Structures are given as C-alpha cells and as structure tokens.
Amino acid sequence: MELDKKEADIVNKAIQSWEEDARISKELAHELRNSYQLRNANVDAIAIYALISAISCGLLAFGALVIDEKWIELLRKRWGFSENIVGIGFTFIAALFVFFAKRRQNKAPNARISNEVYNITIILTVAIAITYWTRSVLSENSNYAIPLLIATLAYGFVAVLLRSTLIWTVAIISMAGWWGAQTYFWSGGSFRFLGMNYPLRMTLFGLIVWAFSWVMDRVKSLEYLAEVTYTIGLLLFLIAAWTLSMFGNYDDLTGWQALKQSHFWYWALGFTIVLILMLVYAFQNKQDTLRDMCLVFFLLNIYTRYFEYFWDRTNKGLFFALLALSFWFVGKKAEQWRNRPAA
C-alpha cells in the first residue's frame, strides 16, 4: 500500500503510540511499518503539472484551430456542408470519443490523470456539436440560453457515464452560464430578475450548487462527484457574495459609480458576518476546504474594504507592509495546522 507523506506520518505516529502504550508488540509494530510504502510526491506533482499543461495546450489548440483559423467554417463552405451536417458529424465524433474513453477507463481504471486529459477531446467536440446544432435550429432572436442548457445536460450525462470530475466541472460552469443567460431572457432583457441583480442571482446559484453537494454525498452512485460539487459551489458562492458586497443589489453601473462605497456598508457587513460564521463552523467541524477558502476570502474582504474606504487616506507603504505581515501570518498558521498531530 502506498501513502503520501502526510498519511504516512499519521500512520507512523499511531503505530508509535500503540507501541509505547504496549497495545502491540515491537514485532507487530515493525511489521506494520513495513506494510506500507511512501508514495513518490515528485511523480504526483509531475503528473498534476502535466495535466494542467495538457489542458492548457488543448484549449490553446482549440482556440487556434476553431476560433482563429475557423477551419471548420472553411471546410463547410468549400464542400457545401450545411450546419446540420457539421453538427451530426461532430456528434458522431463525440460519441466515438466517449466510447473510447469508457473502454480506456475499463482497461486502466487507476490512470485517472491521463484519462481526464483524454476527456478534453470530448469536452471540445461536444461544444462544437452543440454550437452547430443550435445555430441550424435557432434564429438570432431566439433564447441563447438554450445551447448552454443543452451543454449542461450533455456534459452532466457524459460525466456520470465516465465518472469524470473534469467534465462534471464543465457541466456546472455551463449551468452557471445558463442561469445567468436564462434569467436575463426571463426578465425581458433587464438586469434584474425577481428583484435580484446578477451578483445576487449568482450568489443564490452558488449556494444551491454548494447545498446540492450534501445531497450527492448521500447518493451512493453520485458520491464520487460530491467533493468537486462542494468545492465549485462554495467557490461560486464566495465569489458572487464578494461581488455582491461591493455592488449590493444595484443594477445600474453608471448610478453605482456616482455613489459612495459607504452606501453599501450593510452588504459588506453581511458578507463579513457570513465569513466569520462559516470560519467558526469550519474550525469546529474540521472542514479543511471550507476553512481554507473562507480564510482566503476573509483576507480578500479586508483588502477590498481597505481599497473602498481607506485607500486615499492611508500611507501606501504601511498598507503593503500590513499586507505582507498578514500573508506571513496566514502561511505560519497554515504550516502549524499541517503539522498538527491528528486527534
């Protein structure tokens, strides 16, 4: 069995404690220590960097070939293909990629990183297929949120079929885009929907996604997607709530610029209180992801309030000195938490 450094330290401390308390013999302790191996952290880091590089290069290649060169449009016009034909062609290619990805997954279930890299081709081909299908069906005045809804359903289905967290992430992002576009369409082109501007609507959306992760965690067939849903939902909620603390429920950019930022003090106060309550809950229940993300946004909240209220009144050198000190403090505390022995 292979363990990373942190897991190995926890196991080793547990074995040492049992040995010192005479709960196990020295022979058994020696046997337990030899029952696991330390995973090569460098290999894991290289694999992660390779995944990031592969995703980046894939997106750049997609942009260069499809957006810049527009080679699909050139071929379509040269051979006289309709948009329906292109949509059908890329649907077939996407289905073929899904088939190969599923077969690859069955043959090498432990090669998660390389399998996720392969899934990039599925994401891109599905996007092209949906684009041409909807272009052939919808008119210029149609609801442009429909392609995003179709993309959400398609990516969600493929993510569950392939058990892919990467494709599931794309599905959630597509759904966020659909929510923004659909509420804009429902409001008749207004920036308010049911009395909510964009930041408030996206805050609500992030909260729903975040809460839905608890439901997924209790459904055995979907629990493998609960963690990524939890993280993305929390991130969407915090980003939108941070934006809401600056703009409030205001939908007129020109009017907002004419107001003093102190006009929105209660939104900033509400965001600060929510962060504090979430931090207390995270520390009490040992929720590492919630704790770390709330700490980042708590610092971001402090700096945002500084720029809003004190930027023109405070010495800039003092500000950046405090900024450096705060980051040092957070880094020190993070190291202490990491090295703290498990209870």
From TrEMBL:
The protein's UniProt keywords, in alphabetical order, are: Membrane, Transmembrane, Transmembrane helix
Q: Domain of life, per the record?
A: Bacteria
Membrane-spanning intervals of the chain: 46-67, 79-101, 113-132, 144-162, 167-186, 198-216, 228-244, 264-283, 290-307, 313-331
UniProt name for this protein: DUF2157 domain-containing protein
